[in-house]
Amino acid sequence: MGHESLTEEEQERAALYAIGALCQQDIRALEYHLSQGCDACRNEVAQFQQVVGLLGSASEPVEPPAQLRTALAERIRKESSATTQRRSSSPSPSFGRQPDTSTVVAFPDRSASAPRGSRIIVPWAIAAALLVAFGSLFLMMQGQRREMLAQRNALENELAVSRDGNERLARQLDESNQVTSLLAKGNTKTIDLAGQAPAPNASGHVYWDIPGNKWLVSADLPPAPEGKVYQLWFVTPTAAISAGLMKLDRTGHSFSKLDFPASISNLAAAAITLEPEGGSAQPTMPIYVKGTS
User: Does the predicted TM-score (pTM) go above 0.85?
Assistant: First the structure.
């Protein structure tokens, strides 16, 4: 049965398993549990095993202390001397006499008689060291990840600025070519659109191809509020006729090409107003820019 979340004891068992510090019985029990499909325990073991691998490859070799060799040699000498003494003190079997096998000597299980705390101290210390090392590595990796994300975001912003700049220059060049081509035809008229009270700094221009009944309209306006849109009007002495909606880019610039109605013979002005989304049949909002014909 799988776990939704792990207790501290289960996390400790996963850590001890990763470093090979569990007894065989606990190893078999945990491996059987993992074979039943517990994703939480499997992920925990995998993370600790990854940390163990990182520690093994990231740690620098450490020269053992000089006294370790002496202590090890002394330990071997004592063990060898004790073994020799046990052999010399045991009675030698008599020739022609079969050894008595009726009595079985049971040697004490030192691992079973040893205090439990003594068997746990070393694995606990190793597990604690691994957890500290894992925490340090995790924080270091998180810091590096944040740094890489910041660098990537900075590059993306720089590329976006550069891309926007190139696109804006390309649009300006295209608009300039269209205006220059229209004015080169002759018999044209320019209507300058001046900012009104709602937006004194707004401006625009209408380039009118009179024989072809074509308008090129360029305007720079403040961003439209949510649910609002700019609308261009042909203004006559008796009516205001919609010329269509103005589409602005992120900088508030608009450039459009449209047909001028041949039915209008007495144009008095051109104007742009702010209207509800979708436009209006007649102007309902204050005029933002206006120019007389």
Answer: no
- Which residue range forms the structural domain that includes residue 202? 186-292
Separation of alpha carbons 87 and 52, rounded Å: 43
- Domain count for the chain: 2
Main-chain phi, psi angles of 203, to 5 degrees: -160, 170
Q: 180: helix, coil or strand?
A: helix
Of the residues 184, 216, 237, the one at which a domain ends: 184
Identity of the highest mean pLDDT range in 5-19, 45-59, 91-105? 5-19
C-alpha 208/C-alpha 202 separation (Å) is: 20
Mean pLDDT of 261-279: 95
For 6: left if phi > 0, alpha if psi spans -120 to 50, otherwise beta; the answer is: beta
User: Given the structure tokens 């517990």, which residue do they identify?
Assistant: 38
Structure tokens at 157: 């912003």
CB 21 within 8 A of CB 48: no
> What are the φ/ψ torsions at residue 257 (nearest 5 degrees)?
-120, 130
> Residue 247 has what pLDDT?
92
Handedness of CA 24, 30, 34, 39 (dihedral sign): negative
The CA distance from 270 to 193, in Å, is: 8
Distant-in-sequence, close-in-space partners of 154: CB < 8 Å, separation ≥ 6: none
What angle separates helix 8-18 from helix 116-184, to the nearest 10 degrees? 90
If you average pLDDT over residues 178-206, what whole number do you get? 93
Neighbouring-strand partners of residue 207: 190, 216
Other beta carbons within 10 Å of 264:
14
Question: Of the spans 5-14, 98-107, 156-165, 193-202, which averages the highest pLDDT?
Answer: 193-202
Is 84 among the domain residues?
no
**Within-domain flag for 69:** no
Which DSSP symbol is given to 5? S
